[in-house]
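Quick question, first post here. What does this chain look like in 3D?
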Amino acid sequence: MAANAIRNKPKTATAEIFADLLRKISNVYQGDNYYWLRLLLNDHCTGDVLGKSDTTGHTLFNQLKAKGYLSYDPTDVDILFDIATVTGETLAIKLVTDFQNDYSNNDNTSYKSKYKDEKITPFRKNLLMAVKTNINPPRPMHDTYEHLLSGKVYGNIWDFVFKLERELWLTEEQPKKVKFANLLDGTAREILIGSARPTDRSADNRNGQGTKE
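> Answer (accepted):
Ran it through. Tokens below.
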């Protein structure tokens, strides 16, 4: 009896185990994928960290920990699951789900059932999907904001959007959102304005049907 109790005792998460999890997930969000993370966490991380050229996903995750959005309590990783599901990265989804299931109270309840609430706003999710979907080149977009950019030209749409957001030229406010959306192609525009529902697949991911884009 005692032996069975020891074998069935839940594993305990530690700071070291959690740090390893964050490293593995941050590896998923390297290269262009890092831009997805930066955009999704614009409401959670400080601008000085987000704006540094050497900032990595691991840096952002550590700031989330410092600000209380994350801990190695397996019931306190919702924001990681939200990031994983909205980006559709199956490896990240598996890493978060396995961590929660392995270090929970061992009650045979899977993480998809414990998922409490979404930590990333619908606007931010739709902005990510709109920018990912858009096929229009970023250069013509500069013309609309030329009087604000002072001649600065951004080499990719992600840095361009980051600048607009940092200066509050692009926000969830309808006029600013529509102004930017009108520069996108039709599908991307519909996603941002709300006609399309790209984030519906998050429910599928919670049911173990995530797909990598």
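The longest helix spans residues 15-28.
Confidence is low (pLDDT under 50) at residues 1-9, 196-213.
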